[in-house]
Amino acid sequence: MAYATTDNEKNADTAEAKKPKTESLTDNSLSVAGTAYLIGDAALFAAGLLKSWQENGRITTADIKGQALTGAIWAIGGIGAARYGNPTAEKQLEILSTRLGDYLKQQGIAIPQNPTTELLAKKGGVIDHIEKFLYAHPSEALNAAYAVGSLGLISEGAGALGKKTGGFSDLATGVLVAAGALTGLLIPEKKPDPQNPPKGMFAKAMSWIQEKPLRLSSAFYWAGNAFLLKNVYDNWNTNRASSIAKLVTAGSYIFANAMLSMSSKGHADNKKEGMEATQKLADSAAVVIAAQPQEVQNALVEQISGFLASQPETQMKADEISKLLHDKLKTVGKNAPETPTTGNKSWQAKLQTQPAAAVSPTL
After folding, report:
1. Which residues are CB-neighbours of 142 under 8 A, at least 6 positions away?
2. Is 360 helix (H, G, I), strand (E, B) or coil?
3. Residue 124 carries which DSSP code?
4. pLDDT tens digits, 99-149
5. How large is the C-alpha radius of gyration of the chain?
6. Chain mean position to CA 269
7. Full-model pTM
């Protein structure tokens, strides 16, 4: 699908090219964190295998446990955050188009055959739906993998403590990582209300955490890194190869934690991409609206605006989207396609008798 490039879009691209690297890192902090975690996870996996080699003189499939298993499971979360953490404008357009298309079909609103509405009419398979979920919840995928993977370290550390052969550092690291993962999973993200600022030290602290819950996750992860470094120190002379691998792990994790502390659970870090995707999706939505009877078009504008405003990627309010759609309709309406002959006609009466309301995201 081709779109004309406006002067505003050209200026935005130029500004993006001139953006400092530090700002670009911030805009893609979750994806960068996922990549750094992945490097650390690979090093932790290697450390586990090297430890088995040092102790047993060989490596078998049975040796993929404890640290090695933890590194492998955590790598799944790292891949998820790296791939799905900060989607491009094109990918966000695809995601939003699929959601809006599914929503329109559920409402019985037929989508006209038009090159501009191609993405709206596209049917996704099982893999598409899984990817849609991961794009909507990238940090949750990371923290879920870390919660599960931490059990390997906890088990190995507890076992070593039981045999009185050390293990406290592994146990502490596992517990702290599990706490950080559960924090990121369970605390909902909530933007501060300027009209009702928090009062008192505790309320302010809670507001700061809820604004970006991954800040607290990264704090737990940082604490876990301290015990990881202690483990490196304790085993440096007895298992040098494994300790070097763990040192790489700690360095990667420390950088990744810094990136994670800047990240949003959703897509608040991708405002430019979300705005660009919404602007382009408005072209497709306007074609659908213009193909409907004149008497229901205004109500349909509000219905679609409410739906899109509920999506985390749009970064726009319902009234802003409504204005955008009305502006698009002024142009699209002149060459509107014929009203589709298929679809449920009852939605038209429903729109005319009920006010439109914001709807929940469809995943």
Report:
1. 30, 33, 34, 37, 77, 78, 80, 81, 184
2. coil
3. P
4. 888 888 888 888 887 777 888 877 767 787 788 888 888 999 999 999 999
5. 25
6. 10
7. 0.73
